[in-house]
Write a structure and sequence with these properties.
Layout: H1 2-15, H2 17-26, H3 37-54, H4 64-84, H5 90-105
Helix pairs in contact: 1-4, 1-5, 3-4, 4-5
Protein name: Tetracyclin repressor-like C-terminal domain-containing protein
Organism: Streptomyces mirabilis
InterPro entries: Tet_transcr_reg_TetR-rel_C_sf (IPR036271)
Length: about 130
């Protein structure tokens, strides 16, 4: 699920100026409130990884908090590349990121290959 949602988020950040603005404004230190899509994304990733740890889906020794920092920062960076620099290969770079990161995150019994491209409707294409 995390891989699929990250794909959708990077694609949306590339084309949706309102979503991009929400991420940028939420991260602006001059604002009193850090609420917004960036914070919600961060909280969701943290919660999902803590849930995965509780279900035994993370590899032994993986900190959900450390993994969440890597995921949140990387996906936001890929979204920024896609929108600011019109890097058409950001989706390919995201696939390479997941191919590198997932073997270290997932418990051995939960490892499956990352399939490239958008998820097919009704299919479970990636590790949870």
């Amino acid at each position: 699920m995390l891989v699929d949602v990250s794909r959708d988020l990077v694609a949306a950040l590339a084309v949706d100026p309102v979503l991009r603005a929400g991420f940028e404004l939420g991260g602006d230190p001059s604002r009193k409130s850090a609420e917004g899509p960036g914070r919600w994304w961060c909280e969701w990733v943290h919660a999902l990884l803590r849930e995965a740890q509780g279900a035994g889906e993370l590899a032994r020794g993986v900190s959900p908090e450390a993994a969440a920092v890597a995921v949140v920062a990387s996906v936001a960076g890929f979204g920024r590349l896609a929108s600011r620099h019109r890097v058409r290969s950001s989706s390919r770079l995201l696939e390479q990121f997941w191919a590198l990161l997932l073997p270290g995150l997932a418990a051995p019994s939960r490892r499956r290959p990352v399939l490239p491209g958008p998820r097919a409707a009704g299919t479970d294409r990636t590790p949870r």
